[in-house]
Design brief:
Elements lengths: L7 H4 L4 H16 L3 E5 L1 H7 L6 E7 L2 H12 L2 E5 L4 E5 L5 E6 L1 E4 L8 E4 L2 H6 L9 E3 L8 E2 L4 H7 L1 E2 L6 H4 L2 H13 L2 E2 L1 H12 L8 H12 L4 H10 L14 H20 L7 H9 L5 H10 L4 H8 L5 H9 L6 H8 L4 H13 L3 H17 L8 H6 L7 H14 L6 H18 L1
Parallel strand pairs: 2-5, 10-11
Antiparallel strand pairs: 1-2, 1-8, 3-4, 4-5, 6-7, 8-9
Helix pairs in contact: 8-10, 8-11, 10-13, 12-13, 12-18, 13-18, 14-15, 17-19, 17-21, 18-19, 21-22
Bound molecules: adenosine-5'-triphosphate.
Adenosine-5'-triphosphate (ATP) binds next to helix 8.
Length: about 450
């Protein structure tokens, strides 16, 4: 028999301030004559004994007017999304709350966003993705903590399985294919056999192709932002879903070894540069593309409607990195400036990918050498020459392409420690100018 109210011990896992706010919001519901619920992932996580500070509330009535009343009372920020009859509140201490009108949804066309219409809470639960995400907890006083579990969400939580609410679910919204994998891998649940069959069926059609680029990108990057994306990527590969990024993308043994090496590479990078901001999801995507050609990578950037910054980072990766990695792991010793020139144009995410690639090769000595080069590169990254273009002009060089060449050589000399002072820089440049003068 399913639990009818949430055990107080579970509710206490929320910060006491959040519980107080939820009780007051329930009372506000009574004042305004409407039922108010917490819904979806929050209730799922509470039942699993986990805590989230991202609360989703559903109001049987005018959700936006209700959200405005809550925002007034707590003086929070408020953003209203009229099309989705939803409002977002951010409390000063970081608590986030989405308040929506309970609704039914119509999918006029598969894979497009639905039209929404106000409806009772039961219908609102029916439009949700999986039974474990379709449990509501009422907040009104007298009913506080009452669970509404119409579709057996608690049963499936106990049985550790992901189950859709109806056979057309993946067709209505193919993003649920990726959401199913996300929850399955996050909680180490299994897809219920009927749901797995429906997922395979949906994946065998061209439904995912119909998803817009931003929606597909969001699902992929959210999935890769999970705590253990390696499991999720392995599952995507097993279900043959990677072909929706590009028909020529394949999770070969080499690619999967790089993917599996990413956590170690990220940890190493994080221990060396704790303040570095790395787009982890993008590194996992790059690892998946580590054997891909520039053409395939460009195709994926386009399919995912990547921003210019994302596309630039992606295009710096791929198969072409092998050449750089070869030079950095060769017998021949490189000067610091040579290492600098090899790495200077690469975003940090690509440097992490290079580490992952090398880790995946299980060549201890080369990995040590490569890491030494990387650390040396970190030191040289901030080095700059004192002399700039205008100084060369003062020294008599006419503006032209030689500027870049001379300043480049000067920077190399600085990095290699051949030149160590401004005076040294001047002597270095003078020498170059006299050689040039000889040929002019
Ligand atoms: P997470 O812990 O990753 O934030 P969540 O379950 O809170 O997971 P959200 O994306 O924040 O996920 O969505 C909140 C709730 O909205 C879900 O629990 C689910 O009930 C519903 N939902 C979200 N996306 C969909 C979808 N594509 N189809 C149906 N219901 C959805």
């Amino acid at each position: 028999m399913a639990q009818q109210t949430l055990r107080p011990a579970l509710l206490e896992r929320l910060p006491s301030m959040a519980v107080g706010v939820l009780r007051e919001i329930g009372a506000l519901g009574d004042e305004r004559g409407c039922h108010v619920y917490v819904v979806g992932g929050v209730v799922r996580d509470l039942l699993l004994g986990q805590v989230t500070l991202d609360l989703d509330l559903a109001v049987e009535g005018d959700g936006i007017a209700f959200a405005k009343a809550v925002a007034d009372r707590y003086r929070t920020g408020l953003a209203v999304f009229e099309r989705f009859v939803t409002a977002r509140l951010v409390f000063p201490d970081g608590l986030k709350m989405d308040i929506a009108t309970t609704r039914r949804e119509f999918y006029a066309e598969a894979a497009l966003l639905p039209t929404v219409q106000p409806a009772a809470i039961e219908e609102d639960l029916h439009r949700r993705d999986f039974t474990i995400n379709a449990i509501a907890m009422q907040l009104n006083p007298g009913q506080f903590g009452r669970l509404l579990d119409v579709y057996g969400g608690q049963r499936d939580l106990r049985a550790r399985r992901i189950r859709v609410l109806h056979a057309g679910s993946f067709q209505d919204d193919p993003t649920r294919i990726f959401r199913a994998i996300r929850f399955e891998q996050r909680f180490k649940f299994r897809l219920e056999p009927g749901t797995l069959r429906l997922l395979r069926q949906a994946a065998s059609t061209n439904l995912i192709q119909q998803l817009s680029g931003p929606r597909l990108q969001n699902e992929i990057l959210v999935l890769f932002a999970e705590r253990d994306p390696v499991r999720a990527i392995t599952r995507l590969a097993k279900l043959k879903l990677l072909r929706f990024l590009h028909r020529r993308l394949c999770a070969s043994g080499t690619v999967m070894r790089v993917v599996r090496a990413v956590p170690q590479a990220l940890a190493w990078w994080g221990s060396r540069s704790p303040d570095a901001v790395i787009d982890r999801s993008l590194v996992y995507l790059m690892a998946l593309l580590s054997e891909s050609s520039p053409v395939v990578i460009a195709g994926i950037s386009k399919r995912l409607a990547c921003s210019r910054e994302q596309a630039t980072k992606l295009s710096a990766g791929g198969k072409r990195l092998d050449r750089i990695l070869k030079k950095l792991t060769d017998r021949e010793t490189l000067r610091p400036s040579q290492v600098y020139r090899l790495l200077v144009d690469l975003p940090d995410e690509v440097l992490v990918l290079l580490v992952a690639k090398q880790v995946s090769r299980h060549q201890a000595a080369q990995l040590r050498q490569f890491k030494r080069y990387l650390m040396a590169y970190e030191e040289t990254r901030t080095i700059a020459t004192v002399l700039k273009g205008r100084d060369l002009q003062t020294m008599g060089l006419k503006p032209g392409p030689q500027y870049g060449a001379i300043l480049g050589k000067l920077l190399d000399a600085r990095i290699d420690g051949v030149v160590t002072s401004e005076e040294g820089e001047r002597v270095f440049v003078q020498k170059r100018l006299s050689v040039l003068g000889h040929y002019l």
